[in-house]
Amino acid sequence: MGKTRPRLAWPVMGGLIVVGITVGYPLLMLLLQSVFPNLMRGSLEGMFRPYAELWAMEGLSQMWVNSLACGASATLLAWVLGTSAGWLLARTDIPGKTWLRVSLLIPVMSPAYLLALAYVLIFQPNGLSEAWGIPAPDWMKSAFFSFGGVVMIMTLTTFGAVALLVESALLGISTRMEDAAQCMGTPPWRTFRSITLPLLLPALINAGILVFIDSVSNFGIAAILAPRANLPLLPEVIYEQLTTWPVNLPLGSALSTILAVTAMGMVFISQQFLATRASVNGRIPAMRLTPLKTRGKGLGWLFFGVLFLLSSALPVAAVVYMSLIGKWHGGSPAFTLEHYANLFKEGSSGWQALSTSLLLSLVAATLCVVVGSMVAYALARHRGRLVAFLDQLAVLPRIVPNLVVAVALILAWNVPWSPLPIYGTVGILLLAYVALYQATALRFADAAMHQITPKLEQAAACLGVSRWRILWGIILPMMRPSLFVAWITIVIMCLRDWVASIMLLPPGVQTVGSFIFNQFEQGDFAQAMAMTVSTVVLSTVLLVVTNLNFYRKVF
């Protein structure tokens, strides 16, 4: 009868096409543009000229050192604060752990530019510290508008994620070896250094890599705080190369490529390091909570309280306070709701920005869930080199900084041979959201697929059920809770997006991120803060309402 070549499964083929268009092609164009600066003109002349310009660029080495130093310092501080908080939650009997975890989640869910905006308003000359009657001393203002202030904001936006990851890792590590060491008279510090820390090291390294990449590539902090601190950072210079006349796309792509290679190199080194280490752990962790005395519990709550004050309470208070100020009379503010009324006035620029962001977020989240589900199904049910390549390609947005992806999309779709004329339209922003956040949907969908046994599909196939009916009748209903969580998470992430909105927004269109940025740069701080508060409230209301109406039906 002869042999026939097996057909490529449609989930694998569809995943390769979609992820290749949204992620693979733009990143390839970024690399080619950084090597061949005249590629858009159809010429391969001037190979590696952008990198030669980088070598001769004045101040580049200092800028690169600043970015690396900020990222490394923020990582170290986030390790210290996050490990301490995670250990208190996992290994002690400190009361109120639920509320303490919530205090860590708030800065994780808050965008970094929120903290940067708030602290700039507090410490700037004649800022909110003077308005509140507690003027900050000059040394504190100078310290904030410097390297230390930039590192502080980076740390406050990332330590919560480190703490939650450390707590999760500690809950999976048995305390039996620590108890044995204690019975043999080993000092607590030596026990932690020799037993707990080696077992905790994989979680610390993974958390540190995430903090470092986020800090080095954080555009919000680089655009708002770094210029005021006279501290040039790499994301700010990339933005200037792409938005300031004369626009230098090759140089911007070369800088972005260096940033991407740095991030991917850090991830590769960490994976190789962790692959050589083996952890020892029991099947059922034996947990022993360290009892804290009244003084210890008080100090623990004081520790969490200070962190909550600096990372959440103070910034939110500054943003809300500033959004309510109308005019100043004799040094005292007059409060008003006029800024919120202007936002929600039909036809206003604020209302258009909110409407555009909400619509784009809903559509992008839906597309991300569809793509993530398809890729997750392909990864779970198929094997081969193409599947392995799809797996590596799909997780790139989680490794490559968002700023680099935005630059890659500019280069990919602003070319004469582009089959889709989406550059300069809202479509490029929608494509950017899908490229940036489809990896988040994949993470949720992949976790759900690993909980679904293939025996259900095999039984249905034996009964003659078609593939599409199996998908719609078995797979998707069982994945629905995870897909919903992914959908609502991506909606909130798109609403608060900052990088793609500023880098790719077409003329005449505004989103929440671009509106806040433009109003802040123009000096209309109150209107910018009103939009920030409205976005946070909208995200919270959307999350609560959808939970109440959807989870009752699902569960």
Task: Please name the defining characteristics of this protein.
555 residues, mainly alpha, two-stranded antiparallel ribbon
In oligomeric terms, what are we looking at?
single chain
Mean pLDDT: 84
**Helix share, percent:** over 70%
Order of helices and strands: HHHHHHHHHHHHHHHEEHHHHHHHHHHH
Q: Using the CA coordinates, give the radius of gyration.
A: 25 Å
The proportion of residues in beta strands is under 5%
Which spans have pLDDT < 50 for at least 5 consecutive residues? Answer: 1-7
What spatial order of strands do you see in the largest sheet? 1-2
Would you report the number of β strands? 2
The span between the termini is 51 Å
Structural class designation: mainly alpha
Enumerate how many helices there are, as a single number: 26
The largest β sheet comes out as: 2 strands, antiparallel
Shape: globular
Describe this structure in words.
The chain is mainly alpha-helical and 555 residues long. It is 74% helix and 2% strand. It has a two-stranded antiparallel ribbon with strand order 1-2. Strand 1 and strand 2 form a beta hairpin. Residues 1-7 have low confidence and may be disordered.
